[in-house]
Amino acid sequence: MEAMLAIAVGVLTACGVFLILRARTFPVLLGLTLLSYAVNLFLFASGRLQVGAPPLIRAGAAYADPLPQALVLTAIVIGFGMTAYLAILALRSLAESGGDHVDAVSTEDARQ
Amino acid sequence: MTVRLWWIRDGGLIGSGNNHRASGTPCEPAPPLFAKVPVNSNLLLAAIPATAFAAFPLPLLLQRYGRASAAVAAATVMAACLGLLLSLAPATLAGHREVARLAWLPAYGLDLSLRLDGLGLLFCLLILSIGLLVVLYAAWYLPASDRLGRFYSILLLFMAAMLGVVLAENLILLLIFWELTSLSSFLLVAYRSDKHESRIGARMALAVTGGGGLALLAGILLLGHIAGSYELTVILTAGERIRAHALYAPTLILILLGAFTKSAQFPFHFWLPSAMAAPTPVSAYLHSATMVKAGVFLLARLYPALGSSEMWFWLVGGTGAITLVYAAATALFRNDIKGLLAYSTISHLGLITLLFGLDTPLSIVAGIFHIINHAIFKASLFMAAGVIDHACGTRDMRRVNGMFRVMPITATLAIIAAGSMAGVPLLNGFLSKEMFFAETVSYPQFEPLGWALPLLATIAGMLAVAYSSRFVHDVFFNGQPVDLPRQPHEPSRWMRAPIELLVVLCLLVGVSPDWTVGPLLDAAAGAALQAPLPDFHLALWHGFNQPVLMSLLALAGGVLIYALRRPLFAWQDQLPPMHPRTSFERFYRALASGARRTVAVVDNGSLQRYSALLFGFVVLLGGWAFFSAPGGTGVRPAAQPADEVAVAALLVLLLGALGATALYRERLLALILVSVVGLTVTLTFVRLSAPDLALTQLAVEMGTIVLMLLVLHYLPPRNAPKSSARRLIRDLVLALLAGGGLALITLQMLAAPVDTIAGFYLQQSLPGGGGANVVNVILVDFRGFDTLGEITVLAMVALASHTLLDRLTLSAPQHDADGRRWAAEAHPLFLSMLMRPLLPLALTVSVYLFLRGHHVPGGGFVAGLITSIALVMQYLANGIAFAQPRMPQQPVRLLALGLLLAAGIGVASWPFGRPFLTSAHGHLPLPLLGDVELASVMVFDLGVYVVVVTVVVTVLSELGRLSLRARDGEAAA
After folding, report:
1. Where is the signal peptide (chain A) (predicted)?
2. Which is more confidently placed, A43 or B905?
């Protein structure tokens, strides 16, 4: 399971980084979402993987590490906030420049 | 001959003020000496720089009453400081060392501590007395149209900074004043800021001395590290330890860089001739008597700590020797009077540096003596040069000739001062030059090359005589003036008065050194050496010996060199030009354009470039950390076996992520694939014992999809142009490196032994936090402060959406990329009918999740997200026109309410004498409901809930409203 999680984190990171490097706002938003998944899984994994051991106190049970879970929980919500903020910026930039290039330049200038 | 008395107090050496010189042995202090020290001398000492700093804006404030008031104000401030200094002088001359200390940043070893000893007294006297003369001189020198307030204020600021340098006890404090002298001298050199020359000269002076200051800072930090303190009292007694330390060499080199740049030593000398663009009073003050002496002051000050090593000898002595001869030779060929004087100053500073480098007690005494003499004759020479410049309108010695007939008095004064510069007997310059010659002859540790030092000294002496002769002969004799811009005349009496005074001093010191500067020199040299003074006698005639022979040789040789000037000048004209100044300018420009190019590469306004650089550095640093990380300690966790479900989930996840990346142009499809990934991540959390995370991720997924769909709604339908192959390869390489790297780190981490602090939270959750859901207890209780910060960030997102999108209209495209119209029927009846009754149900579920969150999965975050999804569903199903009026209209107030709830319950623990966010919980038996558990953290969680709901609903409804406004706008039109 550990190797599989590592693969998942790696692939999500690679896809996220690739999409963040695109020139249009929407792929950047998608890339950020993917990178957030990767980072959250990575942080979560720092508490190691356990099956069937939720950190709910009850008699004689094993517990997964609750601290990374608490960190990741807020990270998920903050990640949503960041995505929302970027979406707002993208729309504001669209209104100002009339385009969806990340640098708010017109398409003619940005054509590579 | 009486016996000189020495004794120790506070670890420092104190000498008696006896004029007769003799070495002596330490003995007990005489009590009456201390009785003479005023009780409040500490305050008096602190008052000197305090007065200077407090009063420096006075001339600027008073200039409205005329330039005379500005000058009087400046002179009064200097006189006040001088008065304070003189009240402390008797004790200092008697060998007392005053230290005043005021704690400032003791944790960093930085205190406002000052010391006044003989060395400081000497420099303070030079700074204040020559400062007074310069104030007087400048009032007549500077054009009547100048209001002078600014000039005098900066001059006073410079003086205050110089006083700080020479009075500082703490080395970091010294450095602060040191840099302040660089800054204020920049302003003074650039006084004629409309002239290109002034700006170049000022910039160069600042770049060289400021850069040296940085080296000095590093050196001082090292010195403080070695000595364990930045206080001179400690450092000066730790010489043995400092010289034996492994860091001695870098410390010495860095500190010398600071001293050499300030004192214009080769190869940093070029800024001084450029700084001659300053008004002549500034040159007379900064570039002869004070600022350039700060470097040699530092050598003298730190000599007990850093001196007496072979390295010191070679670095300080070598630099001094090169500077001495090179600058003297260059001075001869200068046509500008101030240029000649500037190179002569550099040469004399080289002489002083060489004397300090020779590293014998007597050479230190001679160096300090020459500091006094040089300040006196060079200040008067600069002032005379200013008089000539003022009278003739030029300083070019090829045109300024025959001035003796025009201004005989000034000429006589300048000739005497030039004689002192050349080392003519009966003048003060002769005495210290003789001591210098004597030192080179008797220098003990230089046997194999015993003849080299005296030879070098004699050559330097000849050159000094030659350039002094040129100055005297060219300016005052040598035929008629050539094509002068102005008709020259004698200057006004007051403009000449400072020169007269200084020249009289040259003569007095030259004839009777013992009773003029003897006590001051003793005190200063004693403080510099921190050891008994050597046996020496200041006198005009020591009998016919080697130094006298060298002096005669220098005089004769110098006159001979000057007689041969024509072939020499012709020879010099053919030499390849040496322009350290132009090279510096070139270096400076290259540096600036290099900086511009670097900025153009890394800061080109492209987010893609920034992101690529960022990821590149992350990969580099992460790789470095990965390969250099030490192994952990703790329990190695058991590996979890993989099964078919997990494999299937991984495949789905990979398919989603890779598919979304490959098909990112198909935006809707890519979005759906990303949400597939999100759901798989949710399921991963379920499987891996994180129910709270799964709930949160699921709710966030829904919000994200709605958000993205809204963005898609507005974005232009056109597909983006394809990236270039080069860009694609760069991005793929970065992505693969980042992904591969993080995968490796994850694998390594998961296999590494685990050492966690989870045990504390698991143990304390129930007894300390009153909840069984440890994740929730951590969020609202153990780490509640973090959570408070996080919901504040969230609230700011909502505020940003409110302000960034306020009054913004965006009309959504009517067609897709292929020209097909978007569907018109917005809100399917079925959906809207289903959603309305669902709302109370969804709200009930969220309340349930909220209430149970402390013990089982749920809590403020999850409940808030569920509530917001339920509300957003109403928008989706019924349209914004239906939903918006039914929502709370004041999102900002709700945000404030949520934050106040969370912060307020934190503050509520203060009246109970507990720290912020201390929680309390208890059980309350209620009729019907039974035993109900209440915890203060529930209020906190309620705050979290309110913020989350408001943020999600505000952001999404603001985005949705954009099109509504557009539609209203179209309807209105």
Report:
1. none
2. A43
